[in-house]
Sequence to fold (438 residues):
Amino acid sequence: MACAARAEPTQAELQAMKASYERPKVVPFPKNNPFSPAKLALGQQLFYDTRLSGNGAMSCASCHNQPHAWGDGLPTGVGSKGNRLGRRSPTILNLAWAELLFWDGRADTLEDQALGPIQNPDEMNQTLPALVADLNKTPAYKKAFAAAFPGEAIAPDTIAKAIATFERTVVSGTAPFDRWIEGDESAIDASAKRGFVVFNTTGHCAACHSSWRFTDDSFQDIGMRSSDKGRGAVIEGVAQLSFAFKTPGLRNVAERAPYMHDGSIATLDDVVAHYVDGFVRRPSLSPEIHILPLTERDRADLVAFLKTLSSPDSKASGPNLSTGDKKS
Amino acid sequence: MTFRKFVILTAVGGIAIAGAAYAEVHKPIIGQKNKVFSLQEVNMPQGATIRVENDDNIVHTLLITKPDGIRSDLGLQKPGEQLDITLEQLGDYMVRCGIHPAMKMVVHTR
Ligand SMILES: [Cu+2]
Fold:
């Protein structure tokens, strides 16, 4: 294998690259919905409750399921009537730090987002009055709401706040990559270390997948062959937003194939091949996407690196409440 | 979590000036270099105008959520272009880029 043309980074350059990937110590909660253990317990119960669907067969966890790194492992979601949805179910990991929600950024906050799937006829197909009535009939819920929201009614607003609180605690755990960032040289192998450098230099990945979450929350057209206009349908008249989707974080990415908003790429090797030269050229294509001069070895190293972003908790079967400091 | 430096622009410095007159004289210009607004928190009198200038080398857009919750989309802003935002309402204006939503600022009017 010929040597890549790129120069190895100096020790100082490598340290600077690594510094921007340090994990935060606390989970942020908004001022208008601060954390409380009672809200978390209620939100978790609601997230896993099939009462939230019209036919009582589906919960949020049907599509955002921890063993699939909080996605569903399918190319696109499947609604409560067995119907196919137009987009893939994204992970809900690390959304406490997210800016806008959905592939096209149409929701501002987790609180705004939570009531959407419940009422969407293609997803859970439930009505809010029916859900509120059902929860009011259930003594355990009356108690849980009273503890989480003293003096407030069981209402769409309090349902949304509780679910959002639970979602903010869904944080990816410590991965081998994090242990390497913390200084354990044996945490990841030489190929993954080279892959990290490719990711930050010749691969140009960090132009969008930056920070410890591996996203800058921006909307970009990376040249997928799909007719979905994405953010371009939410904000009209901005050519660069046609076919633009939210840059997903890459934590636990190896555990949640298939990839992209339409689930059209099956493996991480194929994702890398897409970025090397497999993208569609069109006016909206992000200026950060261009043909990459990567060798076979660079590509393998990139994939080895991406695999070190998986934390063991992504395969656990129960709700993950062990990570992160719950105080804001 | 990253802790951004919050720069407070004290608009009136204790002297009460009518909003419109103030805006004519001092229209603060907010830059957008490196996908960051040059100020992330701004205090302005109601009725004043701020100017947002794209001094970056990439395009941005401006999405505004007004104090009454109504949103407006000022559309594309190419490098070198300026857009004015007149602050008719009292309260908090949330301003962010629709392409790079991590780029955001809040403008308080009073
Ligand atoms: Cu922007």
